Every structure is written in structure tokens, then in C-alpha cells.
């Protein structure tokens, strides 16, 4: 389960960069390159803050709750991404939702990945190096797979059957919650 969570976290982490053409195209959100780049500032800040605060938080509420808080943050990120789709014509509202989404994504990553590393080592005390290496390899595989997932769902979103354009964020949300 830990390795599967690492794979999913990798996919979720790269959903935003993999969808760059959606965010910057006039048919999508129409963001300028600068606004698109700025969209990742909250993610960086919250990822670093969550990573730094996670250990103390784990001492107070336990590693399982930190892990679940990270998963909830990642799920909130995908929900905010989904919520931005119907309002993408109102760039101010959509951009605010995207900034919140990347902030939650950073927090989710900063809380979840250290917890996963901890679980990998605790569940395999005789093979700590191997288990953490496998986990991180699967996290990397997830980041590589995200582009392929987005390409598939963008293709689905442009088909007549899913002309609402919400196929890719719905699928990202399902992957994050484990329902994919």
C-alpha cells in the first residue's frame, strides 16, 4: 500500500505541470507564461513548510494522522482544480482556485512523502535502503506517468462525449482519492 501511495502521489504532484498547455492556451485558462509560473509559488512554500513542520506535527498527532492530513491536502488540491474548470472564463476566480490548489498540493506532498518514507522503513526494518529506494522509484514513475495520463484525458475532454472539458481533473481527483 505504501508503494501504491507513492506512485499516486507522484502522478498527483505532476498533474499541474503536465497540464501546462491547458493552463496557457486560449482555449483553456489563457494564463500568461508569467502567471502560469507564479502558480507554483504557493506549492513550493507549502511543500517546504509542511516538510519542516511535519516531524513536530507527527510527534503531537502521530505519523498516521500526518499522512492522512497530507492525503486530504492532495485530494483538496484536485478538488480545487476540478472546481476551477467551470469558472475558467473568469480568470481571476479560476486563478485564485488554481493558487489554492497548488498550495494544497505542496502541503500534501510535504506531509505525505516523508510519512511514506517513514512507513517504508518501519514496515521493512531489515531492508530500509531497498524499501525507500523502491518507494522513491515508484514516486518517480508516477511523475513520469502523469504526462501520459493528462494527454489521454485531454484527448477524452476534446471528444464529443465529454465536451465539458472536465475529464482530466475528475480523473486526477479519482487517482488521488484511490478511486481510479
Description:
It is a single chain. This protein has 180 residues and is mainly alpha-helical. The chain has a single domain, classed as MFS general substrate transporter like domains (Growth Hormone, Chain: A, Up-down Bundle), CATH 1.20.1250. It has nine helices and no strands. α6 packs antiparallel against α7 and α7 packs antiparallel against α8. The chain starts with a helix and ends with a helix.
* DSSP summary: helix tally: 9
- Based on CA atoms alone, the radius of gyration comes out at 17 Å
- Arithmetic mean pLDDT: 83
Helix content: over 70%
String of helices and strands: HHHHHHHHH
Largest sheet entry: none
CATH superfamily: MFS general substrate transporter like domains
Task: Report the β-strand fraction as a percent range.
Answer: under 5%
- Low-confidence runs: 160-165
- What is the name of the CATH topology? Growth Hormone, Chain: A
Principal-axis shape equals globular
CATH architecture: Up-down Bundle
- How many independent structural domains? 1
Distance from first to last alpha carbon: 15 Å
Structural class, by secondary structure, is mainly alpha
- Number of strand segments: 0
User: Mind telling me the CATH class?
Assistant: Mainly Alpha
